[in-house]
Each structure stands twice: as C-alpha cells, then as structure tokens.
C-alpha cells in the first residue's frame, strides 16, 4: 500500500484533486509532498480529506503554494487527528497570524 506521495514541483494546480482523491482510499500514507504544485485554498478541503483518512501521517510539505490563511487553516484542522507528525513544511503559503495559530495547535498536538 502507498506510504509516500511526492508531487512537488509539478505545477498541477487544481489538476491535483483527482490524484489526492484517489489516495483518500488509502489509510497507510505517511509522507505527502505537494510543495510547489500551484494549489490554492480551493484544494484544501481535498487535502484535508486525505489527511483525515491517513492519521498516521509523519510528514507533510505544503510549501510554496498559494493556500492563504483559509487553506492552511483547513489543512491544520485536519492535522489535529494526526498524532505522529514529525515534519511539517508550510513555508511561503501566504498565511496570517490566525492561520499560524492553527499550525501551533497542530504542533501542540504532536509533542
């Protein structure tokens, strides 16, 4: 079963949604790299669904995307079900202090 999915740098934009949705049937995904794929906050719900299906996730990279605060907050909320997160890369996602607080909650949930 799939444990790692790295799509970084492919500039897929919303075309990433069918791939993410196909992986939502998996429960063994531990590493997801969707950095620099030109996704926006419109894709955040699909990414969140994938995260909730894979609560044993260890690493997530969403950096260099235009997720904005709303998208990062949606993803951060989904990450609250994950207790094994070791690496989170959210660089250059255009967030505000409120979304940063949501990420802090994720960090607090993963001591």
Walk me through what this model shows:
This protein starts with a strand and ends with a helix. It has 111 residues and is an alpha/beta fold. 38% of the residues lie in helices and 11% in strands. Helix 3 links the parallel strand 3 and strand 4.
Overall pLDDT, averaged?
Answer: 93
Order of helices and strands: EHEHEHEH
> Oligomerization state of this entry?
single chain
Count of alpha and pi helical runs: 4
The number of E-state strands comes to 4
- Helical proportion? 25-40%
The class by helix and strand makeup works out as alpha/beta
- C-alpha geometry: globular
Give the terminus-to-terminus CA distance.
27 Å
Q: If strands are numbered along the chain, what order do they take across the biggest sheet?
A: 1-2-3-4
Characterize the largest beta sheet: strand count, sense, and whether it forms a barrel: 4 strands, parallel
Strand content: 5-15%
Q: Low-confidence parts lasting 5 or more residues at pLDDT below 50?
A: none
Q: Report Rg.
A: 12 Å
Short summary of the structure?
The chain has helices at residues 17-23, 44-53, 68-79, 97-109; strands spanning 4-6, 31-33, 59-61, 87-89. With 111 residues, it is α/β, with parallel strands linked by helices.
Q: What topology does this entry show?
A:
Blueprint: E1 4-6, H1 17-23, E2 31-33, H2 44-53, E3 59-61, H3 68-79, E4 87-89, H4 97-109
Parallel strand pairs: 1-2, 2-3, 3-4
Helix pairs in contact: 1-2, 2-3, 3-4
């Amino acid at each position: 079963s799939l444990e790692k999915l790295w799509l970084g740098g492919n500039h897929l934009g919303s075309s990433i949604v069918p791939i993410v949705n196909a992986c939502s049937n998996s429960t063994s995904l531990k590493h997801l790299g969707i950095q620099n794929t030109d996704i926006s906050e419109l894709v955040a719900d699909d990414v969140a669904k994938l995260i909730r299906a894979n609560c044993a996730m260890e690493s997530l990279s969403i950096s260099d995307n235009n997720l904005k605060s709303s998208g990062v907050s949606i993803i951060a909320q989904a990450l609250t079900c994950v207790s094994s997160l070791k690496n989170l890369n959210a660089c250059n996602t255009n967030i505000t202090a409120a979304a940063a607080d949501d990420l802090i909650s994720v960090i607090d949930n993963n001591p």
